Predict the structure.
Amino acid sequence: MSSIETKDIVVVGAGLMGHGIALECAVAGHRVFLCDVDGSQLDQAMARIPGTLRLLSSAGKISDESIPAILERVTTTRHLNEACAKADFAIESVSEDLNVKQSVFRELDEACPPKTILASNSSSFMPSTLAAVTFRADRVLGTHYFNPPYLLPVVEVVAAQKTSKDALAKVCNFLRGMGKSPALVRKELPGFIGNRLQTALMREALFLVDQGVAKAEDIDLVVSQGFGRRFAAAGPFAVFEAAGWDLALAVASQLLPEINSEATVPTVLRDKVARGELGMKTGKGFYEWSPETATEAQTRIARVLIGLEKLLEGS
Ligand SMILES: NC(=O)c1ccc[n+]([C@@H]2O[C@H](COP(=O)([O-])OP(=O)(O)OC[C@H]3O[C@@H](n4cnc5c(N)ncnc54)[C@H](O)[C@@H]3O)[C@@H](O)[C@H]2O)c1
């Protein structure tokens, strides 16, 4: 595999994911241009980043003294062409709208030098649909992060139809160099790996609630205090290597005819959204939230993820 010494990174979209990806690149020592059409999003991102750096510092992942230099490595701009002149790698993380993403890719293709690899953090659009609007399809691919990107190491690196092996290798090396774990998706398909698996789980979880089998909190308990804990240490294939594929066959034969296989969105989910019960952002979902309990729950998740990472590093 070839290696890349990436120094100049452009992150387009300064929202929830983009600001986290930008801060992680800056922590790793890269110079980052963070771009957004909306100046207030840039201001918000720069207001959020110090708090996240302090969280990383309290977890021992970075030192307090390194924070000013990390912040200095991030430059914000509303003008993409200003950011791209020296870019080694551009990561698009704008709103999930194909027209918007394609227009960003056209702009990036025009503004970036030929060496720049263009990546999309899209959760649902195939990187080929973005490569198609550029003149560098061999250097376009998907890099699908998980939220929060600075606490979850995996990135799905998605090969589009024309992505070169060289571009895939460079991006995987770049990510490994930052301590990330690239998972290669060799053929693009909707949902890649993670969202397909999570959607399969969510369909059954919603079905169980809808059928009155269990409440959301009990389903959450089974996952977070049951098999979810095991999954932090070993994925489903590794788990069944230990349990035995004969057991997997017995369970699959018994349960596959039983579990929900509807291709339509579950009514219980449609009804929730129709009632405006969107979760933390509206104060109610399957649980009730105040701004304080929502912040507490999110901080707790971040702390558990940090603790888990430390534990896994030592294992
Ligand atoms: N939220 C998640 O958990 C998650 C996880 C993985 C991947 N993703 C993907 O990441 C991408 C961004 O999601 P998010 O949750 O950060 O969204 P967000 O709404 O928080 O941020 C999107 C940002 O894009 C900016 N934007 C819109 N049009 C733009 C343009 N033309 N040029 C520059 N900036 C523009 C918006 O101003 C906004 O700041 C989406 O493709 C999403 O599917 C999200």
Summary: The mean pLDDT is 95. Strands lie at 8-12, 31-35, 74-77, 89-92, 117-120, 140-145, 154-159, 181-185.
